[in-house]
Amino acid sequence: MSPKFYFSEERPGNDLEIVKQGTDRWRDLRRGKATASNFSRIVTEVKGEYAAGAKKYAREVAIQRMLEEDTEYPIDHLPAVMRGKILEPDAVDAYHQRYGSATDAIGLVVSADETRACSPDRTSTDRLLGIEIKCPGGPVHLEYIENSGPGRQYIWQVLGSILVAKFEAWVFWSYHPGLDPVDLVYEAKNYERELELLDKALARFEGDVQFYCNLIRENGWEEPISRKHQSVEDFDKLLAADAGAWAIG
Q1: Helices 192-217 and 155-165 sit at what angle, rounded to 10 degrees?
Q2: What is the DSSP letter of 39?
Q3: Is the alpha carbon torsion for 181, 107, 33, 223 positive or negative?
Q4: How far from 35 is each of 58, 151, 173, CA to CA, in Å?
Q5: CA dist., res. 154 & res. 61, Å (int)
Q6: Contact between residue 175 and residue 134 where contact means Cβ atoms under 8 Å apart
Q7: For a pLDDT cut of 70, what percent of the chain falls above it?
Q8: Cα separation of 122 and 140, whole Å?
Q9: Which is the most buried residue in 6, 54, 102, 209, by most CB within 10 A?
Q10: Do 134 and 84 contact (CB within 8 A), yes or no?
Q11: Residue 177 in contact with residue 84, Cβ under 8 Å?
């Protein structure tokens, strides 16, 4: 089965809803799934072994899945994130000029089994290729220039995104308005061993998540209100009784 692609804008042939990153709907869809930005918590940076801290993250994902409780919090207020949002349109334009090809804005990709997810910044319109865009400050970008890329800092996020989306490649694109961009392409065919290690680690991780989900069921678990009351009418009744009664996350 193929993964689900939730684009951020209308796209011919796509019958899924439009979902933009950072929205409540985006958070709902990714909640309870292992996300590519957290894959570095599941495998060790160099050897790709199952990380000692993976079980801590598994507990978080289980809580998200069973209780619909957020364990991650917004970081939009951070200066680096605000900088990225401001500069991202320029970074996209620079990418288009470099490659002469169009890209799509995308909100989320969810694996067929709905246990994994990634949020690419863009996807290519003419190839199975995702794009990870960074807009760091000068010193960090200069470090990327010096080292011809970010080293292994983002390796599992990028390779994990390839795994979730079932793409051929992923581009790491670092943009700074006063310097040349840093452009690093990760071809899946060159990372078969790492992708296999990550896939096995994620399968083990899902086993840990299931263990904690069962532990939750055995210890006073009740279905979240959003699952008990699916209709708009039911939600309206809850709000009328107590506006905070069904607050989620």
Answers
A1: 80
A2: G
A3: positive
A4: 11, 21, 20
A5: 21
A6: yes
A7: 89
A8: 22
A9: 209
A10: yes
A11: no
Token look-up 């470099």 returns: 98
CB within 8 Å of 105: residues ≥ 6 apart: 7, 8, 9, 122
Tell me the C-alpha distance between 187 and 18, whole Å. 28
Report the distance separating Cα 235 and Cα 226, nearest Å.
8
Q: Which two tokens stand for residue 225?
A: 């209100």
Q: Work out the angle at residue 203's Cα, subtended by the Cα atoms of residues 47 and 74, and round it to the nearest 5 degrees.
A: 85
| Beta-strand pair 116-118/179-187 | unpaired
Side chain identity at residue 219, one-letter code: N
pLDDT of residue 81 exceeding 90, the answer is: no
pLDDT in tens, 184-207: 999 999 999 999 999 999 999 999
Alpha-carbon distance of 160 to 162, in angstroms, equals 5
Is 42 in contact with 34 (CB distance < 8 Å)? yes
SS3 letters for 157-193?
A: HHHHHHHHHCCCEEEEEEEECCEEEEEEEEEHHHCHH
Residues in Cβ contact with 60 at an 8 Å cutoff, skipping those fewer than 6 apart: 71, 72
At residue 217's C-alpha, the angle toward residues 213 and 221, to 5°, is 115
- Phi and psi torsions of 235, nearest 5°: -65, -40
Tens digits of per-residue pLDDT, 229-247?
445 455 456 556 554 444 4
Residues for the chain: how many in total? 249
193, 212, 228: which is closest to 43 by C-alpha?
193
| Nearest-angstrom CA–CA distance, 44 and 53 | 9
